[in-house]
């Protein structure tokens, strides 16, 4: 045997030995991790039982890995039992929301609709606004829509649903110790205020008084005057062997039927003793009837007596007593068990307010009680909807909320289908029908019910939702009709202004070079679509250009983090045997979705991390902190997330780590995941003062600044801490600052810096302190803060220091400072954007072009380029620059600027439309309001 052959033989033996070792490691892992342990998760939302079929493949996954390991000559292949990604495995989802082919026009129309609608009828218009803006994915914008809808709600039903929806959006149910009837002190989310009928235009700003009991029976006091009752006299009602003496006139005054019985032609009118044994009321119940007849009040009767009163009132049409009993019972429902117990009785007796009170508890316990049989029985069937409708508690609003909860929890469940069917039945307006039918089509498509899905999508198109053509095309494609699917999308491209999603969809049905052309056109028109990047990367993988594939994925991940792209990049890293990078991406992915299943739902991501970790150098807690500092200082947010995830595996109760995680997620614009981390930080707090700080941040991030300040102050009163002072300073700095308030914020930040903390947070505090000093024109003090921050590796302080140099008229030093940031930071788009302010026009254009390449979602570069073109009197090009960006990023500032351009070009109708669209996004934006007033007058003159 030759030396070369011997070398090969030795190499094979080494590989075999390595795989024997791997098999042993895997076997040891499986022995140490029983199946039930492997399925454990730290995710707040429990894994849905309806997805248990996926877990059934789990042992097969491990066996596949073991089998691959036994026969393969590559370690990477053992982690890729399903092979490398293939283009046919990827297709973009059909989006569940309403999408307009002309989003700006739709926004403008909706703003006009809001303006033309009476205040007390606006609630559903704001719900329509919520449905339209959902595609933007901005939680704060959506919360404002729901708050506006709640503010303008009149009836109890709408108030109950919208208050519960606002609570669900904040996921209050995930806070340990939180009650379903808790609220944040605002009327719009207060469960007690929701049970009061009427319109209060200022309710969105009002504080509720939850510590004061609402007097539900107060309006019923003294309803029956002493004059009621006709002829005085006593009547005795016999119930079994007992009797209750009542004033005949008072009982008669309760209702027409009782008056006829006691004073009419019935035989009871002549009797002093009337047998009520079989009426269905007890002696105590009849005494309560007597008491109410004489006083018009309800004392503290137990619920069973109140239910008897309600039944009696229904039997004898005693409307005042029924209303009083209904109100009183509604005020007594305090937990979900009571609500589940009383709901059927309330429906049977048609007690409107009691039904609303029970529904409120059910809705405010979502998603936890979504699959409770009693809850399902209340909502899901057509008969259930009809029963709710009889008491005014069935609506499109209700089923829109319920279906959104179900879709988020388990899109493919039968419950989701049933709720969407009810949503369709409740839809009356065109947009409501379009939404219900489109969402139903999306769910049916996921369930592979292609014919039914196609029918739903076609009906949605008839209701005016053009985007549903994507659903029709997809269902045709799934049924083997590729040509018809392609022709359908071609027709849409020809009829409407082309958008990115149109070319993305057509690429699924194209062949050869046309496919890649369509994918590239999709990116050109909308660079925020992830599918084109994934497709191009996968093509490169198929051509064995894996490094190039990672570069392509990085283009997208650099400005928008999504689990699917992180998975694909991890997939590629495994193929390159770069396990450290793969672990980084999977850990970051698990931060976004703790139950994520990789390889098409066949392998748990958390378990894959455990297997990959056997092949990298383990980090001690000290190593993790070092790694976190390095990544934080290099502005590597994904790497920082991964390190924190690893630290939390070893120490899941560390609140401060959860808090750091939330800060990173907010920076990456992953707001839902950030809020989940904040809630976990709050739940794991070991002290009251720490818990108050995290509750304050939750309130601040959901738009409740005053409540956040109150939490910070309460925390400081218990314990002076860095985070409490920092929260208070941050919340106060959010308002317009004068010299006095700026001085106070400086004091707060200085107090924060005196408290124990680590360099990561102190760097942020120094950076913020520098910004306040700059605003106060104390440039030397600001520079000292930024230098101190840089000394503890707070790299972003370069930007503040550059600003100081610029204000001192040293643009060269400012430029060089920003260059240092560009050299250090992994996420460079904002640095290029900021550096453009410190150089000449040509260099600025170059930096801004780079910023757009790195992050096409940043709007300043488009606005700058458009302004430059406008200055050069190239008006059409200036408008086109903004239009291109607005098509995928309908930003308030860009809409306002384009409206101003149109105004200067005397195109007042388009200026008006842009200003209306901008006001739909922010109705209080002063510059746009001024522009709207001017252009509206001019547009009217020209009509």
From TrEMBL:
SUPFAM superfamilies recorded: POZ domain (SSF54695), TPR-like (SSF48452)
Gene3D superfamilies attached to this UniProt entry: Potassium Channel Kv1.1, Chain A, Tetratricopeptide repeat domain
Keyword ATP-binding assigned: no
Superkingdom as given in the UniProt entry: Eukaryota
Name the record gives this protein: Ethylene-overproduction protein 1
Coiled-coil intervals, chain numbering: 808-835
Biological process annotations from GO: negative regulation of ethylene-activated signaling pathway
Pathway: Protein modification; protein ubiquitination
InterPro entries: ETO1-like, SKP1/BTB/POZ_sf, TPR-like_helical_dom_sf, TPR_rpt
Keywords noted in UniProt: Coiled coil, TPR repeat
Pfam families, per the entry: TPR_8 (PF13181)
Organism: Anisodus tanguticus
TPR repeat segments: 763-796
């Amino acid at each position: 045997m030759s030396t070369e052959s011997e070398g090969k033989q030795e190499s094979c033996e080494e590989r075999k030995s390595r795989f024997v070792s791997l098999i042993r490691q895997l076997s040891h892992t499986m022995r140490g991790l029983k199946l039930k342990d492997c399925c454990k998760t730290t995710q707040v939302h429990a894994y849905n039982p309806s997805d248990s079929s996926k877990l059934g493949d789990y042992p097969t996954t491990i066996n596949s890995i073991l089998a691959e390991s036994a026969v393969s000559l590559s370690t990477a292949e053992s982690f890729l039992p399903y092979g490398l990604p293939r283009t046919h495995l990827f297709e973009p989802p059909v989006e569940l929301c309403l999408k307009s082919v002309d989003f700006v026009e739709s926004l403008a129309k909706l703003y006009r609709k809001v303006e033309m609608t009476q205040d007390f009828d606006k609630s559903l218009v704001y719900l329509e606004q919520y449905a339209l803006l959902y595609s933007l994915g901005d939680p704060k914008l959506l919360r404002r829509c729901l708050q506006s809808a709640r503010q303008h709600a009149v009836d109890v039903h709408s108030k109950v649903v919208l208050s519960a929806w606002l609570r669900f959006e904040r996921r209050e149910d995930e806070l340990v110790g939180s009650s379903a009837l808790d609220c944040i002190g605002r009327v719009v989310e207060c469960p007690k205020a929701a049970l009061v009928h009427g319109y209060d235009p200022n309710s969105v700003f009002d504080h509720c008084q939850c510590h004061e009991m609402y007097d539900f029976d107060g309006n019923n006091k003294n309803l029956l005057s002493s004059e009621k009752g006709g002829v005085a006299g006593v009547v005795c009602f016999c119930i079994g062997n007992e009797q209750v003496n009542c004033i005949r006139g008072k009982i008669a005054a309760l209702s027409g039927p009782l008056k006829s019985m006691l004073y009419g032609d019935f035989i009871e009118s002549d009797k002093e003793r009337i047998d009520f044994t079989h009426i269905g009321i007890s002696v105590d119940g009849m005494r309560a009837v007597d008491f109410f007849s004489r006083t018009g009040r309800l004392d503290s009767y137990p619920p069973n007596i109140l239910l008897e009163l309600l039944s009696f009132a229904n039997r004898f049409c005693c409307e005042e007593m029924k209303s009083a009993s209904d109100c009183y019972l509604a005020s007594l429902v305090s937990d979900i068990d009571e609500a589940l117990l009383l709901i059927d009785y309330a429906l049977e007796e048609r007690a409107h307010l009691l039904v609303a009170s029970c529904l409120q508890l059910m809705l405010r316990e979502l998603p936890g009680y979504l699959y409770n049989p009693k809850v399902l029985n209340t909502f899901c069937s057509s008969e259930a909807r009809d029963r709710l409708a009889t008491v005014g508690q069935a609506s499109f609003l209700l089923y829109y909320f319920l279906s959104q909860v179900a879709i988020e929890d388990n899109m493919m469940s039968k419950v989701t289908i049933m709720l969407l069917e009810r949503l369709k039945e409740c839809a009356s307006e065109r947009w409501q029908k379009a939404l219900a039918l489109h969402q139903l089509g999306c769910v049916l498509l996921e369930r592979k019910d292609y014919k039914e899905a196609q029918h739903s999508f076609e009906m949605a198109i008839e209701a005016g939702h053009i985007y549903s053509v994507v659903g029709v095309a997809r269902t045709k494609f799934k049924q083997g009709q590729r040509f018809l699917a392609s022709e359908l999308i071609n027709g849409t491209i020809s009829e409407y202004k082309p958008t990115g999603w149109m070319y993305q969809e057509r690429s699924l049905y194209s062949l050869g070079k046309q496919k890649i052309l369509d994918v590239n056109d999709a990116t050109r028109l909308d660079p925020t679509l992830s599918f084109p990047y994934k497709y191009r990367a996968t093509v490169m993988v198929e051509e064995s250009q894996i490094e190039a594939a990672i570069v392509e994925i990085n283009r997208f991940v650099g400005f928008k983090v999504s689990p699917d792209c992180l998975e694909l990049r991890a997939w590629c890293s495994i193929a390159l045997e770069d396990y450290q990078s793969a672990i980084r991406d999977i850990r970051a992915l698990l931060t976004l979705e703790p139950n994520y299943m990789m390889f098409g739902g066949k392998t748990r991501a958390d378990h894959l991390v455990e297997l990959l970790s056997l092949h990298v150098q383990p980090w001690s807690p000290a190593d993790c902190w070092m790694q976190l500092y390095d990544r934080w200082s290099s502005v590597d947010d994904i790497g920082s997330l991964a390190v924190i995830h690893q630290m939390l595996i070893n120490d899941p109760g560390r609140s401060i780590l959860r808090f750091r995680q939330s800060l990173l997620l907010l920076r990456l614009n992953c707001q839902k995941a950030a809020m989940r981390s904040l809630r976990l930080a709050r739940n794991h707090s070991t002290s009251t003062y720490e818990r108050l700080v995290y509750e304050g941040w939750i309130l601040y991030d959901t738009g409740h600044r005053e409540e956040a300040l109150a939490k910070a102050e309460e925390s400081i009163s218990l314990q002076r801490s860095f985070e409490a002072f920092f929260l208070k300073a941050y919340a106060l700095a959010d308002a317009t600052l004068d010299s006095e308030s700026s001085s106070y914020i400086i004091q707060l930040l200085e107090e924060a810096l005196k408290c124990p903390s680590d360099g990561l947070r102190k760097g942020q505090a120094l950076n913020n302190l520098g910004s306040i000093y700059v605003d106060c024109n104390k440039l030397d003090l600001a520079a000292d803060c930024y230098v101190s921050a840089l000394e503890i590796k707070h790299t972003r302080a370069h930007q503040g220091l550059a600003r100081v140099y610029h204000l001192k008229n040293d643009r060269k030093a400012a430029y060089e400072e920003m260059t240092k940031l560009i050299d250090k930071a992994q996420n460079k788009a904002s640095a290029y954007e900021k550096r453009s302010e410190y150089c000449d026009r040509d260099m600025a254009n170059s930096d801004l072009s780079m910023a757009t390449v790195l992050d096409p979602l940043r709007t300043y570069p488009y606005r700058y380029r458009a302004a430059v073109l406008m200055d050069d009197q190239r008006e059409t090009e200036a408008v086109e620059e903004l239009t291109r960006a607005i098509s995928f990023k309908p930003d308030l500032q860009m809409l306002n600027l384009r409206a101003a351009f149109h105004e200067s070009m005397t195109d007042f109708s388009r200026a008006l439309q842009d200003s209306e669209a901008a006001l739909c996004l922010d109705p209080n934006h002063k510059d746009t309001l001024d522009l709207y007033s001017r252009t509206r007058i001019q547009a009217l003159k020209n009509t």
